[in-house]
Amino acid sequence: xxxxxxxxxxxxxxxxxxxxxxxxxxxxxxxxxxxxxxxxxxxxxxxxxxxxxxxxxxxxxxxxxxxxxxxxxxxxxxxxxxxxxxxxxxxxxxxxxxxxxxxxxxxxxxxxxxxxxxxxxxxxxxxxxxxxxxxxxxxxxxxxxxxxxxx
Length: 151
Hints:
The chain has about 150 residues and is of the alpha+beta class. The chain has helices spanning about 5-15, 25-35, 85-105, 125-135, and strands at about 40, 50-55, 60-65, 110-115, 140, 145-150.
């Protein structure tokens, strides 16, 4: 199927897709800060470049777009009907990368949380999810490789 807009128009449209500081990210950051936690944003030294890093607690939060990261069962994750080969490959690679990144983080002793874009619509439920994740104690690998309790 032929694209209905020109290549230049498509390029301009795609350039507007934000990578950082999206509205869902801002909502999650505001809630985490409101819960009394301090964090870093845009830390490139960890696998997957988590959106929010709480080093003291050894926890990271990813804010995923439902389409780009294919939130299972979400209506926003519907795949395009045009250029199916391209989109299937791209989105499947995104899913595989996300799984690999989470595994690497867990092996390194980090506790990851994924917040989906659609979850930012119900602030009360999201705040509860964040509180439960951030206030829970987790076990993480210490310097000697043994698991140590974290609060």
